[in-house]
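Page 47, continued from p. 46.
Same chain as before, 130 aa.
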Amino acid sequence: MRGTRHRTRSLLVASAVFAGLVVPVGLYAAGHVGAAGPAAPAAADPEPSGAECRTSVKGSRVVAYCHNPYPSTDRVQLHTECARWWDIDADSEPVAVGPGRTVRLDDRCWKEVGSVWVTHADETHRAEAS
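Result:
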């Protein structure tokens, strides 16, 4: 019994010594303690943006309503993929959705609709890229 207690105590002491040596070295390497020079500034959180869109399919017709609750303008575009190989897929023109606005996008296939989705492009980012 005495040997087990002594072994347990030795393992606890060795673990504490190891942690006491390794943790400061890891923090120094990560730049949290004692790093040379100023710390890098924290990255700014991106401003929330983007309209929320809801789509519905009834027969061969597609409707999407997009509402933008954010202060920046979002550009939305409806994409419709028709189920039949001979039916022409369609992409609507991009529409600007201003702050607090809702837009309605619609499209149709000749027969069944295969899939529908909406893409977004923030106008402020688009303007910076041009």
